[in-house]
Amino acid sequence: MLRSGHVVVLCAFTLLVLGVVMVNSAGMRVQPLGVDGVQTDGITLESILLSRPTGFMVASLVVMAIASRMPVGWLSDLPKRLLGDKPPAVSIVVLWLGAAVIAGGLMSVYVPGIGKTVNGSARWVELPGAGFSFQPSEIAKWSLPVLLAVFVTLRGPRIAGLASGMLPALIAIGLVAGVVVLEDLGTGVLITAAAGVTLIAGGARLWQLGLIAPIGIAAVGASILSSDYRVRRITAFLDPFEDPKGDGYHMLQSMFAIAGGEGTGRGLGFGLQKFGYLPEDQTDFLFAVVCEELGIAGAAVVVGLFAALLLAGLSIVRNEPRRVIKIAGVGVLATVGFQALINLLVVTGLGPTKGIALPLMSQGGTGWMLTALMLGLLVAADREQADMQLDDQPTNGDLHDEDDADARDPVGLYGQPA
Questions:
Q1: Sequence-ordered strand ranges (E) for 236-341
Q2: How far is 380 from 328, CA to CA, in rounded Å?
């Protein structure tokens, strides 16, 4: 029987395969003649199979497979192990300490020797000799929902109180998101939105979030106004044709790519905008390449896969009896859903340009693997749910002999005397 966990795996696998194909397609370039006047090789099946994205896809699938077999039940025991007989106020200390550790990891991008600046933004860490770089914000956006799930479980009914639940949580969220916003406003907004959904799932009151929301909106506004390039991105979103060769260039080229695909697309590999026109075509604007080459049909498949993944994940969360795993699952799904939504809004011109990748598709090795890890843990929860259901079913040895006889002969034909 096909379970929700199987659907999550199938959707994630399909998105990764599409990501590998489209990233390689977006990486096509006009090849110069070789030294002997012979055209050099372009994209081939062999080059795709041996490409770096394929290696990351395989690694992501391995990570998901391992995570799906992990016993996630230990997470449900974690709050009790952390608190034990200690007073409930210790849960706030656990939350703030965890948030401080996450914020410290985020600050590693400023450490000389390992911090890496790309396009003027210090978002990456590159360990000497490791041969790859990663964004600490990727780790932060997945670890914060799990930390909040542990916190709301420890707080219990107190989470519904403003001073006892919401306020300590918002301080922790503000600390993590505030450090992220220093370099990446979009990811900071993503982390805050996913954290808010996690709190609501844990029992926080919606009116409390509404009461504090103006503070968050004001903070976002201040971060925009304090940065000239962020202001220009907003103005470019409002009128990209005002500066078509400057601030509005990204958005216009993305919309040109989408419009060029029409209904059926130009065909896989036959897109035009990727040849030096569309910036970040393998990462943030990969969906525009999908629309141009595969058309509305291809775009609908991608959106449908994300919708199916989220619905299957919600089914797992809804059936999960363990509170901390249920809440953490909501946080994971909120992160995936909001990240996909933000990217689709940006690429289609419905939101200002931001460096938010499309999950499981836009090029990014650590991003793929961390997303696969969290989805794998969700699949593990579904697997344990199935095991618990099997344990609850009575076996043949639990039935009385007369029950067996009734089951074999419900109308009593063979029990009647001659």
A1: none
A2: 13
